[in-house]
């Protein structure tokens, strides 16, 4: 894995002998676990790499040397002159595949998981290579070879395995559309596993017709800790369904951390994710956000984005993005509907969207507190 961006470290002067002299008040932000691990010289760049990334590991340092040590898994300030190293736990097959820096978190991903694949490494690069699949088919090949050997021996009185072909020979009888019915691709990990008897005997479910007219319902919400006050932190929540990988929980970008902006941004993020050629109903407990998208914006556009009181429209930047996405979907024949629901009530989707939004706001607050 390439450590990323390796952004240019502004605020450093090149000296003889390859050494760098740190300019006063310069900070180096190290992202050890995030979208693109590396060293960044601004908090904004660092935030982009860690927001929305579960289990992100990052820290700021006054010197480049300490930042590089932290990136490589070392303790930049070891006590008593001892050098402390870190371990990287790569989970290739588990609940949430990825690289973890503590065993308890990694263990949660594999406990009770059928055929987990994980390994501990001393460097992130090795862990990443393992995660990206170097030798990813070794486990499957070993299982196939073992099963083939048992089949040839007849199981010595025991029931022979379900398949009797050697790896690479070809597809068995009954293969459909070029796919071997004895194996299964795990969508979450990309790994191939051997089906058990229950999986082979299972009846495939087929759609009996369009669901709600082909309309997808997505729940959105925004939250702001300390809304309206200096130092507030806002978050965005988008809920597609239980354990849906499209669910969003992230901090609100920008310096204005208000609840209304978070509500609008949640609608934008939902449309970012939804295919443009599919109908969608966006469910929100914010009358403000819905009316911005469906009613008020029509007059605002006519009046040059001025409110009834003659003042510039608040949150125009996000509203314009939202309207542009809706208009783009209309050109493709897709419907975008907005539906209001009472907040903090018994509606499961709204409750979950609110939870995701609050988590996003808390994540932003925790990140700021750690720097």
UniProtKB/TrEMBL annotation:
<keyword id="KW-0479">Metal-binding</keyword>
<comment type="similarity">
    <text>Belongs to the RNase H family.</text>
</comment>
<dbReference type="GO" id="GO:0004523">
    <property type="term" value="F:RNA-DNA hybrid ribonuclease activity"/>
</dbReference>
<dbReference type="Pfam" id="PF01693">
    <property type="entry name" value="Cauli_VI"/>
</dbReference>
<dbReference type="GO" id="GO:0000287">
    <property type="term" value="F:magnesium ion binding"/>
</dbReference>
<dbReference type="InterPro" id="IPR009027">
    <property type="entry name" value="Ribosomal_bL9/RNase_H1_N"/>
</dbReference>
<dbReference type="InterPro" id="IPR017067">
    <property type="entry name" value="RNase_H1_euk"/>
</dbReference>
<feature type="domain" description="RNase H type-1">
    <location>
        <begin position="212"/>
        <end position="362"/>
    </location>
</feature>
<dbReference type="GO" id="GO:0003676">
    <property type="term" value="F:nucleic acid binding"/>
</dbReference>
<keyword id="KW-0460">Magnesium</keyword>
<dbReference type="InterPro" id="IPR011320">
    <property type="entry name" value="RNase_H1_N"/>
</dbReference>
<protein>
    <recommendedName>
        <fullName>ribonuclease H</fullName>
        <ecNumber>3.1.26.4</ecNumber>
    </recommendedName>
</protein>
<dbReference type="Pfam" id="PF00075">
    <property type="entry name" value="RNase_H"/>
</dbReference>
<keyword id="KW-0378">Hydrolase</keyword>
<dbReference type="GO" id="GO:0043137">
    <property type="term" value="P:DNA replication, removal of RNA primer"/>
</dbReference>
<dbReference type="InterPro" id="IPR050092">
    <property type="entry name" value="RNase_H"/>
</dbReference>
<keyword id="KW-0255">Endonuclease</keyword>
<dbReference type="InterPro" id="IPR036397">
    <property type="entry name" value="RNaseH_sf"/>
</dbReference>
<dbReference type="InterPro" id="IPR012337">
    <property type="entry name" value="RNaseH-like_sf"/>
</dbReference>
<dbReference type="InterPro" id="IPR037056">
    <property type="entry name" value="RNase_H1_N_sf"/>
</dbReference>
<keyword id="KW-0540">Nuclease</keyword>
<dbReference type="InterPro" id="IPR002156">
    <property type="entry name" value="RNaseH_domain"/>
</dbReference>
